[in-house]
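WARN  no MSA supplied for this record, continuing single-sequence
INFO  ligand: KG4
INFO  echoing inputs
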Amino acid sequence: MAETIILGIESSCDETAAAVVADGQEVLSNIVASQVELHKRYGGVVPELAARAHIEKIIPVLREALDKSQVKPEALAAIAVANCPGLTPALLIGVTAAKTLAWAWQKPLIAVNHVHGHLQSVMLEQQKDCFPAVALVVSGGHTSIYYCQGPLELELLGRTLDDAAGEAFDKVATILKLPYPGGPSIEKLSREGDPRAIRFPRTYLEKDSLNFSFSGVKTAVLYHCRGQNMLGQDRVPHMSQKEKADIAASFQAAVVEVLVKKTLMAARQRNVNTILLGGGVAANNCLRVELEQQCHQAGKKLIVSSKKYCTDNAAMVAGLAYHKLQVGQIADLGLEARAQSS
Ligand code: KG4
Ligand code: ZN
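INFO  complex generated
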């Protein structure tokens, strides 16, 4: 049977990405141009700079993705793009590129929710039976738990009420004056630290709640470093490497504990045996190992995105678009970029 090959485009934040994926799983090419160097000196992503960089990178990235896959435009079944959620000026570049190609090559256009794409990334290159499942998606902008009956049948069970988990990692890295992006820096430093050194707060909210809140733990780290109410001097420049490592490891342990407990609670509430983990923070080894151990103890199966598909990429966009194409969920050329999920 002929394969269904889709070109995916992703530009929701600071990665310009394009990928060619066959039948929702087989990744024929996956090109990601990172803007880390550009945003480093600002300590975070500047939306207008991101958009300008996407404009420069989108055509070379698309060309490279097609060249590497050795797929000709005629062989594509559709053009897919993440159109929400994200930074609107950044999303707009990918959406405009996708609409232009869909129109020029006369292909169906498929709109993908970026967060749902992260969830789909667990299915890339894995022939596994995933559903029904509870999925944890942890990224820089989102921390969400879904009940999933299929790739497109997602019910949001809980989400963060303030900072996303990745955002908390990034902010704590800034407090500790670690290099941007913060998540990988915290993970690296944590390896030298003791996760039990400081008992940072774990926020569980009301009983049985599957929502998250990470602003409390972030503020606790800030107070630990600068004194209550920020009245003391910043101690970080005078701290030893070990002291900083203890803070990083203790913070990471607090965040991971809440993520793992709530995910398992969701699986119990919905009586499912499979748990999926995706999103940028899913690259974190402490989270992967802890969730694996807890799933094992609870007799649940864990399916995790491979590391290369945890952070933003377009393979997850093309992967999810395959399922949308199967059921005829086609967008029109009036498709808009949206900051929020729709
Ligand atoms: O999914 P993603 O690439 O972009 C968004 O959709 O936001 O996630 C980026 C986030 C950043 O906050 C980054 O610090 C975090 O994922 N991250 C990590 C790790 N790698 C990336 N957080 C903790 N540990 C990591 N190893
Ligand atoms: Zn993302």
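The beta strands are 5-10, 15-22, 26-34, 78-84, 109-113, 133-138, 143-150, 153-159, 274-278, 301-304.
INFO  checksum written, moving to next record
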